Amino acid sequence: MRAGRGTKQDARGAERRRLAGNASGGGGARPVGLGMLPLATNRDLYRFIADLVKQRTECRVSLQVYLENLRQLGHPLRARTAIPLKAFAELLRAAFEAGLTRAESAASPRAGYLAWERRITEQIRDLGEMQEAGSLDDESRYFGLDAPRGGRWYNFDPCTYLECAVAGTFGGWEEGDGTARAYVPGPVAVLDATGAINSVDPRDIDDRVVEIPQLTWEMFVDFLNSGQWYE
What is the pTM of this model? Predict the structure, then answer.
């Protein structure tokens, strides 16, 4: 998992509550058209997710249901070692649709898939147990909650989960993208090539655009973890 240049600041609680409220509201959304979007780099993926989030602000899908849908969509790919970037983006879009059922596959699962399935199942379980405990009713939850089994959570709706997942795993964010992400005020501490700590303006930190031809299941696990933890 990578550290991003931008981060949610202390105002993130109000912004995330706004997104969470929108995510649980009524209405549908126009699907993102993958055919018209270039998808080759981390920057492309961030822009795709930023657009997806903007178009899904009125969906009714909870994060628990979204992740369950994503788990069902991943099952037919169990024999693959990696997922092309465009197919990965389509999974993220399709998981917003309600009423998905698992497409069965007789293929033997890869070890990477099994690790991904375990991780997403843990997240679904955490969210269900937090819902039962009433933790998800806490208006301060976006400042961090511990699940009953100890997992730490900062993101509780599909919109903030996806934005933090892509920013924390791959970067690609740029100032002015229209998401809630922003530079932290003042200088930040970074390690240079010698291991020394330096204070720099976050705008001076290089955030490279890199190609992502495909995602391994291990990368997908990192994506899930960033969705849960990254701010």
Answer: 0.81
